[in-house]
Design goal:
Strand content: 15-25%
Bound molecules: adenine
GO molecular function: methylthioadenosine nucleosidase activity
CATH class: Alpha Beta
Protein name: Nucleoside phosphorylase domain-containing protein
Number of helices: 10
Organism: Cannabis sativa (Hemp)
Strand order of the largest sheet: 5-9-8-6-10
InterPro entries: MTAN (IPR044580), Nucleoside_phosphorylase_d (IPR000845), Nucleoside_phosphorylase_sf (IPR035994)
CATH architecture: 3-Layer(aba) Sandwich
CATH topology: Rossmann fold
Pfam family, one: PNP_UDP_1
Length: about 270
C-alpha cells in the first residue's frame, strides 16, 4: 500500500492537471485607478456588485459580468477614505488582490494599468506591454537573502501565443511606491533590467504567487521616465488617451476574447 504522503501527492497532482486542462472560467482584472478601470467596465458592460464580496467599510470596488462564457471581475481599490484620491500603490493593490482571490477564486489574474517607460529600452508613449517578469525597486535590504526577498522577482505567466497574436511589446516591469524616481530607485530599476515602471505589479504578483494563480501584466506607457518632461505632468497629460489604448488591448477582441475556451495549459504552452 502506498504511504499516505504519496496518495495525497498524487491527488494533488491530479487536481492541478485537471485545473490546467479546464477552460479558464473566472478572470480577475486588478486595476489601480478609476480612470483606467471604467473604460474596461463599460466595454464589458459590467455592473457594480452592490453586495460586495468584500468586508463592509472598505473602499474596494468590484464590477462583474459574463462575457463570452467568462466570468469577468474588475476590482479597483477605490478612493482613499480620508483624501478621496485613487488608492494607488502596493499596499492597496496587495490587499484588494488578496481579498479578491479569496472571494472569487480566479483562474487567471490580469493586472492592467499605466506605467512609465524607458526610451533607452525601447518604450514609447502609448505602447502597451506584456511584462515578462516583475520585481520591486524600493525594497533595499543589504543582508544576504533578504536582498533577494526585497527585490521579490517573480515571473509573469508565460503566454507565447498571446504575445504573438496581439503584437504587444514585451519587457520587464519594476514596481515601487513612488511616481518619481530617485537615484537609489534608478540603480535598482537598472539592476532589474526594467523597460517599464509602475506602482502595483510586483505587489499583485506577490499575492498571486502565494495562491499560485497565474498572472499577466498589461501596462500602457503614459510617460517617459528617461525623457525631458517632468513625470507627473506627462503622466496627467497622457492618462486619458493612453487609458483608451489600454482598454483596447484588454478588451476589443483582444486579450479577454482570446481566453474564451482556452485552458491554462494552452495559454502557457501552445503555439498553433
Ligand atoms: N504609472 C504611470 N507612470 C508611472 C511612473 N512613471 N512610475 C510609476 N508608475 C507609473
Amino acid at each position: 500500500m502506498a504511504p499516505h504522503g504519496d496518495k495525497s501527492h498524487a491527488a494533488e497532482e491530479a487536481a492541478v492537471s485537471q485545473a490546467e486542462n479546464s477552460p479558464i472560467s473566472t478572470i480577475l482584472i486588478v486595476i489601480a485607478m478609476q480612470t483606467e478601470a471604467l473604460p474596461v467596465v463599460n466595454k464589458f458592460q459590467l455592473t457594480e456588485d452592490p453586495h460586495s464580496a468584500f468586508p463592509s467599510g472598505v473602499p474596494w470596488v468590484r464590477y462583474h459580468g459574463i462575457y463570452k462564457d467568462l466570468h469577468i471581475n474588475v476590482v479597483w481599490p477605490g478612493k482613499d477614505l480620508s483624501l478621496g484620491v485613487d488608492s494607488v500603490g502596493t499596499i492597496s493593490a496587495s490587499l484588494v488582490t488578496y481579498a479578491s482571490v479569496q472571494a472569487l477564486k480566479p483562474d487567471l489574474i490580469i493586472n492592467a494599468g499605466t506605467a512609465g517607460g524607458f526610451k533607452a529600452k525601447g518604450a514609447g508613449i502609448g505602447d502597451v506591454f506584456l511584462a515578462s517578469d516583475v520585481a520591486f525597486h524600493d525594497r533595499r535590504i543589504p543582508i544576504p537573502v533578504f536582498d533577494l526577498y526585497g527585490v521579490g522577482l517573480r515571473q509573469a505567466c508565460s503566454t507565447p501565443k498571446l504575445l504573438k497574436e496581439l503584437n504587444l511589446k514585451v519587457g520587464k516591469l519594476s514596481t515601487g511606491d513612488s511616481l518619481d524616481m530617485c537615484p537609489h530607485d534608478e540603480a535598482s530599476i537598472t539592476a532589474n533590467d526594467a523597460t517599464i515602471k509602475d506602482m502595483e505589479g510586483a505587489a499583485v504578483a506577490y499575492v498571486a504567487d502565494i495562491f499560485k494563480v497565474p498572472t499577466i501584466f498589461v501596462k500602457a506607457v503614459t510617460d517617459i521616465v528617461d525623457g525631458e518632461k517632468p513625470t507627473a505632468e506627462e503622466f496627467l497629460q497622457n492618462l486619458a488617451a493612453v487609458t483608451a489604448a489600454l482598454e483596447q488591448s484588454v478588451t476589443q477582441a483582444k486579450i479577454i476574447t482570446w481566453f474564451s475556451g482556452t485552458s491554462l495549459k494552452q495559454l502557457t504552452t501552445m503555439w498553433f
